[in-house]
Automatic annotation (TrEMBL):
Keywords: ATP-binding, Cell membrane, Membrane, Nucleotide-binding, Translocase, Transport. It comes from the Bacteria. PANTHER family: SPERMIDINE/PUTRESCINE IMPORT ATP-BINDING PROTEIN POTA, SPERMIDINE_PUTRESCINE IMPORT ATP-BINDING PROTEIN POTA. It comes from Nitrosospira briensis. The gene is potA. SUPFAM superfamilies: MOP-like, P-loop containing nucleoside triphosphate hydrolases. The complex is composed of two ATP-binding proteins (PotA), two transmembrane proteins (PotB and PotC) and a solute-binding protein (PotD). This is Spermidine/putrescine import ATP-binding protein PotA. Part of the ABC transporter complex PotABCD involved in spermidine/putrescine import. Responsible for energy coupling to the transport system.
Amino acid sequence: MALLEIRNVTRRFSNYTAVDNVSISVKAGEFFTLLGPSGCGKTTLLRMIAGFDLPDSGQILLDGNDMVGTPPEKRPVHTVFQTYALFPHMTVADNIAFPLKMAGKATQEIKTRVGEALESVRLPSFGNRFPHELSGGQKQRVAFARGLVNRPRLLLLDEPLGALDAKLREEMQIELINLQKELGVTFVFVTHAQDEALALSHRIAVMNHGIVEQIDEPSRIYSFPRNRFVADFIGKISMMSAQVVEAAPSHLKLDVKELGEVTAVGKAGVKTGDTGVMAIRPEQVRISHLSDEPRLKNHFPGKVHDFLYVGDVTTYIVELSNGAYIEALLPNSAPGRAKFFEVGDQVGVSWRHDAGIFLND
Ligand code: ATP
């Protein structure tokens, strides 16, 4: 049985539908992420799971029990916010102890559990400090400790790493993965950062305008996006208008405008005559000097239009003969080398027969 079951949940604000008939099932022990652009309804959904807000229709079940009449403090759920929400006049230990005191736990038990919680977030000697004596990362760890001290069935995390700089954020991501693994608590994590969702989650629900576009494991979301929105929102991808000219069970043949025949893969149900786009990730695109490239399927001449060096890799933007642009990514494996091609170089781009994805919606 699912730990959390969201069934056909809808929430409207006047005539605006913020969450539109959403159904999601989260398993016990899962690190589940709600991912989507600003305003897509992630926080509204999280607030309804926590009990701070109620659906207009649909059900939210925890361990099979409908939560509709249960106030937030009676739900086996805790929320960690981006802003940490620590009490400034209380020590770290008192902040962490707060949910236990509210639950009427005995003094000795509180002391033991606060000690364990501080250990679990690697701040064993910080109990007597005040929040203003902590760094951003330490404050966030205290917020995690407070979220976990009452052993909730479900921990809700609303962009908890959003206020941290890139390096600290990566450190905290690794800590969060380890913490979740060690404690086995189910996490529902909200973010608009696709790299964070891919790095942390067992499964991701991609949301857009209040609906769920796709629920899948990170590698499937990235490699087999269900539609153009998911493809475009997660990672980089080039897209070109295409029509299906042959739909075999194992592959598709596409006619890409002014480029000719391209092989690709697509979801079940795609048929000859369907129109849409051929989408391809930059790391799937090979780029070489025109004369070096053997004549392969999915091989096209082009010209380097621009490039973007970011240290470990360089992305080349190649203009094809049909006027479309395609991105190709090359690792900078030779030390001191920022690029292999110059703007204006005549190049060939190619890709495996199954690297292109046909998307018709
Ligand atoms: P962000 O990443 O910016 O926090 P989000 O995906 O969490 O965005 P929500 O906060 O869930 O988005 O908001 C979804 C939509 O519902 C937005 O258009 C927002 O303006 C609207 N909305 C949210 N809460 C209310 C409210 N209390 N009253 C009216 N409209 C609301």
